[in-house]
Amino acid sequence: MLEGFAYLRGHTVLLMSFVVDIIAMVFGMPRALFPQIAHESFGGPIDGGLAFALLFAAIPLGAVVGGVFSGWVSRVTRQGAAVVVAIIVWGLAMVVFGLAVWRASGSIGVAFWVAFVALAIGGAADMASAAFRSTMLQQAAADDVRGRLQGVFIVVVAGGPRIADVVHGGAAAVVGTAAAATGGGVLVVVLVVAVTMAVPAFVRYRVAPAPAV
């Protein structure tokens, strides 16, 4: 894995594929807040309940639906730009989720279903982002380092949301759950736009043409 990180230092496009994912997961994954939001904002019982279950299921549900209808992914050639768009959609979905929590009335009503749909849309966007980034990893990396970079990929995918749990939990303790979720989504959009402007080669990255048969 250390060799994978060393390889990334000299390959900006691949490095950026990890950087934008870390931004998306660390600042835009409010999962740690779901128990409190389900109880305080949507009136669920303190030990779980329907609101809690649906909030936890929304992102995976969106990812599954996005995967079922993912045939279009193979037709996208500007994969760098596609990753950026997918992550911006993820960030905006978390903003909508946070605003829905802000407007919640203490029961499962319109605000809850807006929050649920926003999370599901975020899950579909995350699925698309992961598909594009995986393809970039397989195509842009040298054959002898793909396994090492896959190790880095697993660390980022598994570790980012855990860091997000700490970040969102700490932020919510200071500003509240709605502000933490909304602010996290805003930060995703702002930071991803900023880093891609700093490294335009990532946005310009295109998939290699298929070999002639």
From TrEMBL:
<feature type="transmembrane region" description="Helical">
    <location>
        <begin position="108"/>
        <end position="132"/>
    </location>
</feature>
<keyword id="KW-0812">Transmembrane</keyword>
<feature type="transmembrane region" description="Helical">
    <location>
        <begin position="50"/>
        <end position="73"/>
    </location>
</feature>
<keyword id="KW-0813">Transport</keyword>
<keyword id="KW-1003">Cell membrane</keyword>
<feature type="transmembrane region" description="Helical">
    <location>
        <begin position="80"/>
        <end position="102"/>
    </location>
</feature>
<feature type="transmembrane region" description="Helical">
    <location>
        <begin position="152"/>
        <end position="175"/>
    </location>
</feature>
<keyword id="KW-0472">Membrane</keyword>
<dbReference type="InterPro" id="IPR020846">
    <property type="entry name" value="MFS_dom"/>
</dbReference>
<feature type="transmembrane region" description="Helical">
    <location>
        <begin position="181"/>
        <end position="203"/>
    </location>
</feature>
<feature type="transmembrane region" description="Helical">
    <location>
        <begin position="12"/>
        <end position="30"/>
    </location>
</feature>
<dbReference type="InterPro" id="IPR036259">
    <property type="entry name" value="MFS_trans_sf"/>
</dbReference>
<feature type="domain" description="Major facilitator superfamily (MFS) profile">
    <location>
        <begin position="1"/>
        <end position="213"/>
    </location>
</feature>
<keyword id="KW-1133">Transmembrane helix</keyword>
<protein>
    <recommendedName>
        <fullName>Major facilitator superfamily (MFS) profile domain-containing protein</fullName>
    </recommendedName>
</protein>
